């Protein structure tokens, strides 16, 4: 029997490869780990927050892997569109992208307007909080605890 991947699984794998390459190109790390470790943790967090049967599960996974692309690499929405990614996915990645000079609360409020970005941001925050606990970084623990509380003031999935 052949193990045939669905189109959805292929697109998740494709964004994971794009993100891994793009973040490695800029030699980004997550603590001592390659940056894609963080992206995988966010994707796992999303899988714990929403059901695999959720109609936008694949979009959530794509955004989980791609959530830092626009902010931290030279990848943009046009590139992702040319790779076959939907406007729904790129809009959510844009919504989760913090703009230079943007105040954190304004950023989180904007992020929360997009239900996919909101869910992925919760998973991202949980990953950052867990990492901060492991590192014993009290300042970041406080930051991400406050951020998680703020994101949960109105959960939309």
Furnish the topology, listing elements before pairings.
Blueprint: H1 7-25, E1 29-30, E2 33-34, H2 35-49, H3 57-66, H4 69-72, H5 77-82, H6 87-95, H7 104-112, H8 115-135, H9 138-151
Antiparallel strand pairs: 1-2
Key traits:
mainly alpha, Hypothetical protein af1432, two-stranded antiparallel ribbon
What this model shows, in words?
It is a single chain. The protein has 157 residues and is mostly helical. It has one domain (7-154): Hypothetical protein af1432. The protein has nine helices and two strands; from the N terminus they run αββαααααααα. The protein has a two-stranded antiparallel sheet with strand order 1-2. A hairpin with a 2-residue loop joins strand 1 (29-30) and strand 2. Helix 2 (35-49) runs antiparallel to helix 3.
Oligomer: single chain
DSSP summary: helix tally: 9
Approximate shape:
globular
The CATH homology group name: Hypothetical protein af1432
Query: Order of strands in the sheet with the most strands?
Result: 1-2
Q: Which residue ranges are poorly predicted, with pLDDT under 50 across at least 5 consecutive positions?
A: none
Terminal residue distance: 36 Å
Q: What is the CATH architecture descriptor?
A: Orthogonal Bundle
The helix content, as a percent range, equals: 55-70%
Query: Regarding CATH, which class?
Result: Mainly Alpha
Question: Kindly state the mean pLDDT as a whole number?
Answer: 91
Beta content: under 5%
Query: Taking Cα atoms only, what radius of gyration do you get, to the nearest Å?
Result: 15 Å
As for the number of domains, it is 1
